[in-house]
Amino acid sequence: MKRINIKGVIVFNDYKEIYDWYGIECTSVDDVVNELPTDGSPVEIIINSPGGHVDAGSEIYTHLKAYEGEITTKVYAMAASAASLVAMGGDKTLVAPTGQIMIHNVSGIVDGDYRVMHKEAGVLENYNSAIANAYILKTGKTQEEILQMMNDETYLNAQQAVEHGFADGIMFDEVAPKAASMTASLLPKEAVEKARQMIKGNKDKSSVPAASTVEDDTRISELVAQMGTMQGQLELLINNSKEEPEPLPVTSAKRKGFLF
To answer: Homologous superfamily of 2-186 in CATH?
Structure first.
């Protein structure tokens, strides 16, 4: 049976090379779509992801739902935010005994006056209603119930996920990972754009200034420092923290990089 991994941050296709360059684990839409068999044979989707870009997660979800064959999504550790949306895309959803599913509201950052803020609030509410449809379809809950769970930033262990209808069963896989990254290492827009220009200019990685020496990029420096200690903090994060990653405005000219 074909197995496709969804690990790390869920990103747009054109951001993948940037995340790879920084050494941040990620999964793009094409990483999943290009691996789907053409003969409609059964597929297992293995998930351990803190989420990422809502539109990328929505596209993966839709491709899974449209696939002609049987798809089983398996949450090996964490399916949070956009990754929880992907988990709903299977014909059957299973969660490891140590796994969790987390759902919450979409977030984003904008600049502008009060009119812009009011408009953005409406955009975010629409996003919430749109992605709630995936949870409603899976669980049979009402929109009101799902939106309240999203407002509450709801974490579900394996038993709770089954009880609430987000999963169809609990898997008993002894090799399932026992920790998951709860902090999506989403790069600041400045980091993405600088790396993109450097890659296009055919400069090798050694020629790029260290994050701590790039003017006005203290956020990049902090991110790099955090990445160096992230592995040692995974278990502490999953047991003791529900801190959400700071939403970062990764955008392109024609779309907003809403985080989820």
So the answer is: 2-enoyl-CoA Hydratase; Chain A, domain 1 (3.90.226.10)
